[in-house]
Write a structure and sequence with these properties.
4 copies of one chain form a homotetramer. The first copy, chain A, is of the alpha/beta class and 377 residues long. Helices cover 34% and strands 22% of the residues of chain A. In chain A, strands 13-12-11-10-6-9-8-7-14 form a 9-stranded mixed beta sheet. A 5-stranded parallel beta sheet of chain A has the order 2-1-3-4-5, with helices on both faces. In chain A, helix 1 (17-26) packs across helix 11 (319-334), helix 5 packs antiparallel against helix 12 (345-363) and helix 6 crosses helix 9 (194-210). Chain A is globular. Chains C and D meet through strand 6, strand 7, strand 8, strand 9 and strand 10 of C and strand 6, strand 7, strand 8, strand 9 and strand 10 of D. Chains A, B, C, D: Residues 5-134 form the Gfo/Idh/MocA-like oxidoreductase N-terminal domain. Chains A, B, C, D: InterPro entries: Gfo/Idh/MocA-like_OxRdtase_N (IPR000683), Gfo/Idh/MocA_oxidoreduct (IPR051317), GFO_IDH_MocA-like_dom (IPR055170), NAD(P)-bd_dom_sf (IPR036291). Chains A, B, C, D: Residues 142-272 form the GFO/IDH/MocA-like oxidoreductase domain.
Chain lengths: 377, 377, 377, 377
């Protein structure tokens, strides 16, 4: 099979997200890095792209130039990854979808719910793929968890509890560090700090594994470092459409938690537990039985978990290959074999609605509110 | 030193709590089991007490008989443990305090806030010890955590997150089992199920380690097994007097969690983590530094942690000896050396106030409420 | 049931082993501490015994006095614990057995194989109990492991691998500390250092769980701190009577290992893993299946594991209660219900033979030798 | 930087090692997969190579054809990976080195010590890189451990203890499975089974982290499944040139251990612990201090550990990226920046010497033998 052609917007030299996407797209030999507008400083972006092996005529100065250049080529890129600053995701994603490109957009897909709904409509109208990079959902054992829920192996889900709490912004003396400060500044981060940044991954995963959507929520936000305008710690209670009770804690001042992303799902006939720092194991307890350790790569896993494992049991696979799994699913989808687990524009707009609802609820003393985008009510 | 004399009310043959108290009182050779009214069936209680080595004249048929018998003896018991059904704690504790006995009351100390306040007043008037068995607080490494907070080793506490979530009531087909059902029946359990039963230990520990008290709270309760009138899953957000943000999750349907009691405390300069299933380690991370494992029995622990360790480093000590530590503190207190960490009637009434406030908040959509007993506002 | 009467020799004020035995004997209310010769300084011993509640006429100045005093009493002690320096175990144990007392001897039971064989013969002739304090074997989950092997749940045992390696003697600058130094001085410790001190517990446990005895062994000893005459690190390979392959590593310079005692048992149809720092779990993997966590206190444990648990599932029980379990078994045995798991004089002499054989093998370049006491060849 | 050109011999369709090398070589965009002789069935190999994107004229039918085809090209491959059956490694590696290619050879590099010594000489004469794929040594935290030892952070190393013990060949009923059986058949596997297959990784790592070489060893081998001619369980004791004591256990019948590769290094002033199933943490204990968790990606790591991390702290990286790290080092070396940690032909021949010595020692009752290749004595 010939490699698909791939382009990226953003992810310039020195960024952290650029290498993650390049590795994700290339690790399995599925995509050729064919085009890019990698930096908002046009010259630097063109130069860096060429150093990464992109031909000079596809090393673009900005995304508009890339759109113009690619859309008329016979060998146009099969997929565009949008890894620019958050506030630009909407217009770039929209423009490329409208021009008939498949898009993988970094999270958050948009800054507002209205924009998110527009992307959903544009994507639908275009017939193209609009994926959002909730890459944790592509760990094999997360897929296994989702498949087990789908197969009824833990019964109807009663309760989901998830945390994404680290401590890397817990040093008040470092709070003015520009790499930290912008996250708590509404002018740059939008309406929410830690919840929009990390918590939203956890909320997506709750929906992803439970195969259900958030209907209502109540939130409590705190700025434990008082100079912060936006929250650095948040708690959400929620209810899903099917009645599942949800709890979500997210924090950036939880000193000692390194990554701190985990999820527990409790159903009528069993419980599941997964943690991103030990992603190759899924802990399963049947009601009344003993806790079992399900290993990535063991025999008898659900198909989706097996398919996304590369090396044999107990050879750990980590975060970069979870990103690569998103690209595997995208390559399949581009070739016509749609993977149902791939996060899409609907997930993106639901996240945005949850963020805005949580902000409103927290401001109003934790009152319960409808968390769905209007288009999904 | 002569042994102190100890009596117990409740804890009859076949009960789980009786052996725990007997071991706790006798393990260190501090107390002699001298009197008891062990069963509401008078004959059985008298017989069992004698089989346990209590003299016939101090093997009582009920607590009133025991009170009458003991109060005029020269060698009256130095301490009475109240381990009867919850609804009787108030009257028994009150009566023994008024008669000049030291009391260790099982939790909950009372069923209402008013009763709790009365116990506080009676205890104060009596000049006697009224302790409540929040025994988790007596694990050496919990004492170490409290001492570290007190010594400023993690700075001002910003955030405390605690869980007490197990899955032992997660089997709906077993929900009518009498040993399970009463806990969710308001006629027997009172206003709250899982929160009053387990969550309250976690809330006490948050106060205990943070050295602060809960001021306001907001709660979300759920009966995930729908036949239950009382909650089997609850989430509390709270604020302490000093501004610390609190999160508490408690559940009895978290299948796969065996005990599931843990606490994380995050301050300005460090974080702490402790879990009751690995009680001999305290995990500590200084801000900007590496996570360290503090071991029970290592050199340089705070005095209270050292004092309550019996065997050397890495020889685990478990739950029964945490109960025994409460008795150690009681023996010291009876002999005049008061240990500041011993949970007392104030802790008991604060717990009751938190339970009633949480119930009210959960019923009212999670509205924030003052959680303090009126006497402490 | 009236309490049994218990006496101790050694375990004076300030010793570590004295409190462990007192707690072990008294925790469950089975024994009354009735007599003692607690210190080689007669006055101190008598005084301390009385402060611990022993009557003046049974607070003895030395073991000979205690033997003389007790043997003619109608209410003589039912059990004597020998917790004196190692080199005195033989004569004291022998004398008390010959006088018709039940004895619990601290390990090592003797210093030579010949002495050990004599104890076996004396015990047999006396008809009395001679137990040796291999207390790790009394953890409930160790008993569960032994029972599972006995029930064939892992098939024929192919391989046992055990470690007892800590790092508490790893500081060369502390090597002259008298509390450390004697262990590596043949004049005080005998022929072996770390293996005789710690490794022998592991070797006993291998036999205990596998229900088999060591037949041959090959050893490699090292004094990694070169000033030490005896080994501070040792490796044994061995074969059991039934052909099971054994591996045993023991060290006192393994800095970072706190207790470091664990065992893995691999059979034809499954594997087991237990570690003394998390003693309440037994890890079990059926061949071709998933790893399961067996919890102390769960339903369906083997009888011996259930009997020796005090509190419910996931309430940890630790080392002091393992010692107490030895006393539980002793109380039963004294009353006529013999527990087959109780370590006895045969275990004691086998250990001695293994120590002497390992020393000889290590000196001779690891040559394989018969490790059995002559009486068991 | 233009990509380097890479070719592979072996690793055909359905093999496990092929995908691992392709991912390793391509993940970071350093190598272009330019040539291959992927299968001993020439047609299948050519076809598969072309499906993987290799040009038809560089999709070779066997290694001789590839050697002939590549050696005269101006754009000849910069690196050849040899991933063929073990017995062919020697001749292929030798031939490509002699023709002036850089080679990455899968382990074992050769079947005999003599062959290994010849490769060392050929590599030296050629001036080309001859690397051996001891890929575990390229995990960032293994590099950190090696760097810490080099910097004296744990003092002189006294003791190294390593295990590589899994249970995937523990099912005797599966022992005739061809994928398992060949490993214990001397006609196919050579002189050693489990030790040569897995244990040798552990022995290399001991040398790698300790920065020392094995001088003497004593071995105990067992075929716990008696139908096996070669060992499925082995224990080595060894001494390194600098006096360090070594212990190595390897097994394939340790049911319940999934990967089971770990190493502990104990020096005069500290201890280190690493396990391949949690490869992103290195556990460090300074003598007399608390155990610390060193995280991949934390600030202040040694340069080599930092350089080989791709994503930030607590985002796990796994086995495939350890292989990729070998390719990173190779790319650097090809471009002239030699990385001192890259395993080379000397490591390959030392491994072979250890295997043959261990076999001889085990046959001779564990006698200690010189384990060095003659050329390094």
């Amino acid at each position: 099979m010939a490699k698909l052609k791939w382009g990226m917007i953003g992810g310039g030299e020195g960024s952290q997200i650029g290498p993650a996407h390049r590795l994700g797209a290339q690790a399995d030999g599925l995509f050729e890095f064919a085009a890019g507008a990698l930096d908002h400083r046009a010259d630097l972006g063109r130069d860096y792209a060429q150093r990464l092996g992109i031909a000079a005529d596809r090393a673009y100065g900005d995304w508009q130039e890339m759109l113009a250049g690619e859309k008329n080529r016979a060998d146009r890129v099969d997929l565009v990854t949008v890894a620019t600053p958050n506030s630009t995701h909407f217009e770039i994603t929209k423009a490329f979808l409208e021009a008939g490109f498949n898009v993988l957009c970094e999270k958050p897909m948009t800054m507002t719910v209205e924009e998110g709904e527009e992307i959903v409509r544009v994507a639908e109208a275009s017939g193209k793929i609009c994926a959002v990079n909730y890459c944790y959902s592509a760990y094999p054992m997360v897929r296994q968890a989702r498949a087990m829920v789908g197969a009824g192996e833990i019964g109807k889900v009663r309760l989901v509890v998830t945390n994404f709490s680290h401590g890397h912004h817990g040093d008040a003396t470092d709070a003015e560090n520009p790499r930290v400060r912008w996250r708590y500044d509404p002018k740059m981060a939008g309406v929410s700090g830690q919840f929009a940044d990390c918590g939203i991954h956890a909320l997506h995963m709750a929906s992803f594994i439970c195969r259900d959507e958030v209907r209502t929520l109540s939130a409590d936000f705190a700025s434990t470092i008082s100079s912060r305008e936006l929250e650095d710690d948040a708690m959400l209670n929620f209810r899903m459409e099917g009645g599942t009770v949800g709890r979500l804690w997210t924090s950036s001042v939880a000193i000692g938690r390194q990554h701190g992303f985990d999820i527990q799902v409790f159903g009528e006939t069993g419980g599941l537990r997964w943690a991103s720092e030990q992603p190759n194991q899924l802990i399963y307890t049947p009601v009344g039985g003993r806790t079992q350790i399900i290993e990535k790569g063991e025999g008898g896993l659900h198909e989706d978990a097996q398919r996304l494992s590369r090396v044999s049991i107990a050879h750990p696979e980590g975060f970069p290959l979870a990103v690569a799994n998103i690209y595997c699913d995208l390559a399949d989808a581009i070739r016509g074999e749609v993977r149902e687990g791939l996060p899409n524009a609907s997930d993106g707009v639901r996240s945005m609605a949850a963020v805005h609802t949580a902000v409103a609820s927290a401001k109003d003393g934790g009152v319960w509110m409808d968390a769905r985008p209007p288009m999904f009510r």
